[in-house]
Amino acid sequence: MGTLFVKQSNVNMSNRESKKDASQGQSNSNARPLSIQGPSTSSSTEQTPSQPLPNQPRQPTNLQGLLKYAMDAAQSENSESKPVYPLDEEKKTFLNEALSSLTVNVIDELQKAVQILSNVTNLRADDDSSEYENALERMAEFVDNIDIANDFYKIGGFSIFQPCLNSSHSNIRWRVADIIAELAQNNPFCQNKLLEAGVFPILLSMIDTDPSEQSRIKALYAVSCIVRGHPASLKFMDANDGYSVLLRAMQSPVEKLQIKSAFLLSSLCSRDDANDVKYTLIKMGFIEQAAGLLGRINLQPTVREQLLRVLSGMVNDNFLPALKECRRSQLCLRSTLEQLLTELKPMENQDEIDMCADLLDKVFSEPDTNQER
C-alpha cells in the first residue's frame, strides 16, 4: 500500500550507466576485474599501462547503488593524493533529501486525487475544472500498473467514477473514461469491480449520446477493455443493449468510433464459444448492415478491413445461421466481395484480399447454396 516509484528519467539514467559499465567490462580479460583509471599525467614521457585498483566497487543496479558507486570510485581515485573524510551531516541531509525528491508515494498521491474528485458533484458547468482535470491526469500516471490498479480500488477510488462520468465538463468525462480503460485492461479483478460499480450502462450511454466526440471514443475504449477477455461482462452487454450501441457506433460519422466498434465486434466473434454473440448479431441485422457498409464508395480502408474480419468471424466453423444470412440474394454480398477483389491492390491490401477470397469460398462455393444470380 505504500508503493514507491522512482521517476522514469532517473531510472533510465541508471539503466544507461549500468549498460555502459557492462559493455566496458566485456572488453577486458575474464581474468581481471573492471578497473577505474585515474587521470592521465600529460608531463610523463612514458605512458604506464593502467592497472586494476583493489577493492573495486560493485556495479550499481539502482539509483542508490549508483550514488554509492560514484562515491566509492571517487574515493579510490583520490586515495593516494589526499585523505578522504566522511560526509558531514549537512551533506548527508542534502543527499537524503535529493534521493527522497526522486521518489513518490503512489498511494498517498492517489488518495489526494480521490479527495479532490470527491467534490466533483459541486462543479457547475461554468466553473473552472482545471483542479479536477489535474487530479485525473495525476491519477492516470499510476493506474496502468496492475498492482496499483487493485490498490486503487481498495482505497475507495472507484467511488469517483459515476460522479465524474456524469460531470457537465467533457474534459472530466473523457479523462475518467480513459482511466477506467487502463484499470480494466487485462485485469479481471478490476473488470469485476467496475461492473459492480455500475459504470457499464453509463459508458454505453456515453457512446450513443455524449455531445463530446472525445468522450464517446474514450467511453468505447473503456467498454472494450472491460469486455475483452472477460466473459461475465457479456451478460451486461445483453442486458444493456450493448450490441445495438456498437452497431450504431459502427455507422456513425466518427471514423474512430467506426473502427473501434468494428474491432470489438470482430474480437467478440473470434472468441471460443461465441455462438451466442453471433446469434444476437444476426437477429439484430448486423450482416445486412455490414454488407451495405462494404458497398459504400467512401468507406474508410480501416473500417472496411474490420468489417471483413467480423464477417470472417461470423462464418467461422461453418456457422450455419451466419452462412444462410450471408447468402441472401438481397444483400448482394457476393458481388460486393468480387468487386472488392478487383479494386484492392496486393501490395497494400493483401489481408483484405485474402479475407474476401476466404469469404467467397466459405459462403458461396457449395453448388446447392442459394447463391446470387
Name its key features.
373 residues, mainly alpha, two-stranded antiparallel sheet, disordered C terminus
Can you characterise this structure?
The protein has 373 residues and is mainly α. It contains 20 helices and 2 strands. It has helices at residues 8-26, 63-78, 89-101, 106-117, 130-140, 146-154, 161-165, 170-184, 188-196, 200-209, 213-227, 233-239, 242-250, 255-269, 275-283, 286-294, 301-314, 320-326, 333-343, 346-364, and strands at residues 4-6, 103-105. Helix 5 runs parallel beside helix 8. Residues 37-50 have a biased composition (Low complexity). GO terms for molecular function: adenyl-nucleotide exchange factor activity. Residues 1-15, 23-32 have a biased composition (Polar residues).
Mean pLDDT equals 82
Please estimate the helix content: 55-70%
Shape: elongated
- Can you write the helix and strand succession as a string? EHHHEHHHHHHHHHHHHHHHHH
Segments where pLDDT lies below 50 for 5+ residues? 6-45, 368-373
Structural classification: mainly alpha
Placed side by side, the strands forming the largest sheet appear as 1-2
The amount of beta strand, in percent, is under 5%
CA-CA gap between termini? 67 Å
Region (Disordered): 1-61
GO molecular function, one term: adenyl-nucleotide exchange factor activity
Protein name: Nucleotide exchange factor Fes1 domain-containing protein
Organism: Cardiocondyla obscurior
